[in-house]
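Appendix B. One record, verbatim.
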Amino acid sequence: MVAKVYIVYYSMYGHVEKLAQEIKKGAESVEGVEAKVFQVAETLPEEVLGKMHAPPKTDAPIITPNELTEADGLLFGFPTRFGMMPAQFKAFLDSTGGLWRTQALAGKPAGFFYSTSAQGSGQETTALTAITQLVHHGMIFVPIGYSFGAGMFEMEQVKGGSPYGAGTYAGDGSRQPSELELAQAFHQGKYFAGFAKKLKGSA
């Protein structure tokens, strides 16, 4: 029986998208797990995105609320906006009212990954403030804790992420996820997929 993990993200400049792809690789490294990557719809007009120098979106499919019910586990990724998820992702979650009404997502495991501009810009609060969305849907929050091992205690280089999930620093936009950050993203995908598979098998 295959466990389905859906990785759903919003990425304006591509940093979160890179984490999503690495998380997918990690999830797919677990036997019996199928991982798919989706993005949420953009809410800003093209004119505004152009002024913000945002690159074109990838060809990842745009997810609909009802598609969330197909997954056995959900990983949500987004950049921070003042320590919280951006309006684009919140708009998508706001559209899941019908699923909330029937508690269609209750009992499903879920987690977060994220990007911030700098240290102290929300590597933990971005995930922490997003947990309320899972709570109202009755979902199970699955953090990575310190399961990434020595990588969690790295002090010689700048590294995003936290016990809440994988993360990266974008800086002024030019910095890309480091090898260590990508390794943490892979780990999160693998760790989470194992949990989702185990939970599905026990159902």
